[in-house]
Amino acid sequence: MSTAPASFGRRLQEETAARGRLVAGIDPHAALLESWGLPDSPAGLREFSRTVLEAVTGHVAALKPQSAFFERHGSAGVAVLEELLAAARAAGVLTILDVKRGDIGSTMGAYAQAHLLPGAPLEADAITVSPYLGTGSLDPAAELALAHGKGLFLLALTSNPDGPQVQHALTAQDTPVALEIARHAERIGGAAPGEWSSIGLVVGATVGDAYRRLGLDAAAPSVPLLAPGVGAQGAGPAEIADVFGERAGQALVSVSRGLLAAGPDRAALAQRAEELATTFR
């Protein structure tokens, strides 16, 4: 008789306790590949991805590849992404695939199957999703994720300056959109007492007091928080503390440029990852 897989929330909580809250963003844009002396090609992507994975393994809570930077190279680039996800899984490194999927019904279910079904070519431990077709539109992905020990991160308060246009807007019930998303994440997350939910939120480290002022902290106390905006976008340890308050320990600090600029030397990358992990532990 097979046993249920450990929840993504529990695994993520264990990784952060052991290794700190750093998430390594893998964003291989053309200028970064060039700065590493690599071609802007699938071959360059492959060398870049292998180097980053080897360097940061053991120093980070998770990897966060940005799918678009692989997709722009067509099927050959997607093949490299498949290789990276499989290699990370073999190394025991959690992956949060940044794809921001959002659709309804069977289409949302198909996106979930592509990334969250065990054995799928593009299988990850969690993905980012967009709830802006209505929170219920994510149900097919949430159901599949929870059944297979996977996770979702719902876009709630993003780090880009245009986000408040929609995320701070009020629903027909006079509830901020971001707060409604947070309530939904907490409601469907299925967290056991004392454990993190497998359904998290994306909340930028640059959103100022909005996370607490809009009530997301109180509405979703069990969810992990994926926090972009650290480093090149201006946020540091002080901003993490200010933005998240008593929930700062649940904030996964996503760093890309501030980490990857230390490459291509593996030892330098590993040292930088350890420094960042220590800073945000």
UniProtKB/TrEMBL annotation:
SUPFAM superfamilies: Ribulose-phoshate binding barrel. CDD domains: OMP_decarboxylase_like. Its EC number is 4.1.1.23. Gene3D superfamilies: Aldolase class I (3.20.20.70). Pathway: Pyrimidine metabolism; UMP biosynthesis via de novo pathway; UMP from orotate: step 2/2. One of its GO terms (biological process) is 'de novo' pyrimidine nucleobase biosynthetic process. Pfam families: OMPdecase (PF00215). This is Orotidine-5'-phosphate decarboxylase. It comes from Brachybacterium paraconglomeratum.
